[in-house]
């Protein structure tokens, strides 16, 4: 039998959870269904141990504000990322107030965001970055120091047995956060189930076919038993992480032509030693290695997962041809089409530094990884740290009229011309900016509904359609309001 729904969400991660939550709130009578290939939701990139849990607000991540060859710096991208994260905070605060989400500490905790650099060149860069950002309302409260005594107060593990005479500097924003996106995702889906949304796990989508009436006939198989089934949907969102490329290719929409993805895995060093954990309460980022992708910026993080606090360091890049941890070893090959072969080959030719970096990472032993940790924490001992596999990140490769093909970091929404299907490709800072990404998708795919929906969106997200950073009073008000509602006041 074929079931008919208004909206079908493919993938049980934070993106589908956010879109489903917004649409069900904006129009409660929408019939929504979710298909997830695995046995539960939030098992891939949204799982707490598969990502860094950083509430990406550009408070500490240097790759959002690089220094040009001429020494110039532009805070625009950092501000934009922060604006997007504020929308996430506002929606979560509203959902807590309405009882959709549980106690805030089950998914978000106050964790200062820091940047720590060494060497005269990086110290000069960080000082200049600080001078620019401290003038921006969304970065109010950012602190800077080159004083070892001050940095020791902020994060003692960074300074113990640090070599004297070495130039170093740090910035700190007390208002940073650690987010358990796995818990957040599960809570959102639990609420959707209560509101009548069918969240079907162990359902593997095999085929998407456009019907004459403009709807989509989606064929799937039950993972257990292999029983086939179909569902018809007026609108389909593919939020399946690295799997999204494969499903969009199967849909046959021309908009996916020229796209491919390059999978990059990762590992963390993790410790739950209470004596070590008690000495560090921050997410501390630094500069990426030469040739390393932005997602591989080293950082030493406080994590709070299921009420337990631990520390993670990494990520260390790994390689697997799989697009997901639970993917296929043939993923990287089966994505190849005549229209994306040349762009992917061009990316390979133009990024020898990335290939060299991946090879060097793959050759690192546990001891070598602990040596990298000692750049942050000079007193680190190998026996205190275990290796933990992180998630797979499928970085976007696509056609470029000037270069032939480019490797793109970040996320991108692919939408069919008739707006009946859309999918998300890419990785970080996706989860942190899921609300902003899904708001953009709703505006693109449901333009005729926006006049009716916008008043409610402004209730849920007060800064919707506006820039907080250009309105200091509004920025201060919303930052304070969400901090109080989410109990993340420093």
From TrEMBL:
It is an enzyme of class 1 (oxidoreductase). InterPro entries: FAD/NAD-bd_sf, MQO. Keywords: FAD, Flavoprotein, Oxidoreductase, Tricarboxylic acid cycle. Gene3D superfamilies: D-Amino Acid Oxidase, subunit A, domain 2 (3.30.9.10), FAD/NAD(P)-binding domain (3.50.50.60). Its EC number is 1.1.5.4. GO terms for molecular function: L-malate dehydrogenase (quinone) activity. This is Probable malate:quinone oxidoreductase. It comes from Microbacterium trichothecenolyticum.
């Amino acid at each position: 039998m074929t079931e008919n729904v208004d909206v079908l969400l493919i993938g049980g991660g934070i993106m589908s959870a956010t879109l489903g939550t917004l649409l069900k709130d904006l129009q409660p009578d929408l019939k929504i269904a979710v298909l997830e290939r695995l046995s539960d939701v939030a098992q891939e990139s949204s799982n707490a141990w598969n990502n860094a849990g950083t509430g990406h607000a550009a408070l500490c991540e240097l790759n959002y504000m690089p220094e040009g060859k001429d020494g110039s710096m532009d805070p625009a991208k950092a501000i934009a990322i922060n604006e997007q994260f504020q929308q996430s905070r506002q929606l979560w605060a509203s959902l807590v107030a309405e009882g959709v989400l549980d106690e805030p500490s089950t998914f978000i905790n106050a964790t200062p965001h820091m940047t720590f650099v060494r060497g005269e060149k990086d110290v000069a860069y960080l000082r200049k970055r600080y001078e620019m950002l401290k003038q921006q309302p969304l970065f109010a409260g950012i602190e800077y120091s080159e004083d070892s005594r001050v940095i020791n107060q902020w994060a003692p593990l960074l300074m113990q047995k640090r070599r004297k005479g070495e130039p170093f500097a740090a910035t700190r924003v007390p208002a940073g956060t650690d987010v358990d996106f796995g818990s957040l995702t599960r809570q959102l889906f639990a609420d959707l189930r209560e509101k009548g949304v069918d969240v079907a796990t162990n359902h593997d989508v095999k085929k998407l076919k456009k019907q004459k009436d403009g709807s989509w006939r989606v064929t799937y198989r039950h993972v257990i038993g292999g029983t086939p089934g179909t569902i018809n949907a007026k609108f389909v969102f593919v939020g399946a992480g690295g799997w999204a490329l494969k499903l969009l290719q199967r849909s046959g929409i021309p908009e996916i032509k020229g796209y491919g993805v390059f999978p990059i895995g990762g590992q963390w060093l993790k410790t739950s030693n209470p004596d070590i954990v008690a000495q560090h309460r921050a997410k501390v980022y630094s500069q990426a290695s030469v040739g390393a992708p932005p997602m591989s910026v080293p950082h030493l993080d406080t994590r709070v997962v299921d009420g337990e606090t631990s520390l993670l360091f990494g990520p260390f890049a790994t390689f697997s041809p799989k697009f997901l941890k639970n993917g296929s070893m043939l993923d990287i090959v089966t994505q190849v089409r005549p229209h994306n072969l040349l762009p992917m080959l061009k990316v390979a030719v133009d990024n020898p530094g990335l290939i060299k970096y991946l090879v060097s990472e793959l050759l690192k032993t546990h001891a070598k990884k602990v040596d990298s940790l000692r750049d942050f924490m000079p007193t680190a001992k190998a026996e205190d740290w275990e290796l933990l596999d992180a998630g797979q990140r499928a970085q976007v490769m696509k056609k470029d009229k000037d270069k032939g093909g480019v490797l793109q970091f970040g996320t991108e929404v692919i939408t069919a011309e008739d707006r009946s299907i859309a999918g998300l490709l890419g990785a970080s800072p996706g989860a942190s900016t899921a609300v902003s990404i899904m708001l953009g998708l709703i505006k693109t795919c449901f333009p005729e509904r926006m006049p009716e929906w916008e008043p409610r969106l402004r209730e849920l997200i007060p800064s919707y359609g506006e820039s907080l950073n250009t309105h200091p009073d509004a920025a201060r008000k919303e930052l304070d309001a969400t901090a109080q509602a989410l109990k993340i006041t420093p």
